[in-house]
Amino acid sequence: MGVYGLLHHLSRGLPVSSFSKGVLAGAAASAVFALLVAAGIAVSGAYDVAADSPHFALTQAIIGYVREQSIEARTGTIKVPSLSDPKMIAEGAEHYDAMCTRCHLAPGMADNEMRPGMNPRPPELAKLPIGDPAEQFWVIKHGIKMTAMPAWGTTHTDEEIWNMVALLQKLPKLTPAQYHALVAAAGKHHDDDMNMGH
Question: Residue 40 pLDDT more than 50?
Answer without folding.
Answer: yes
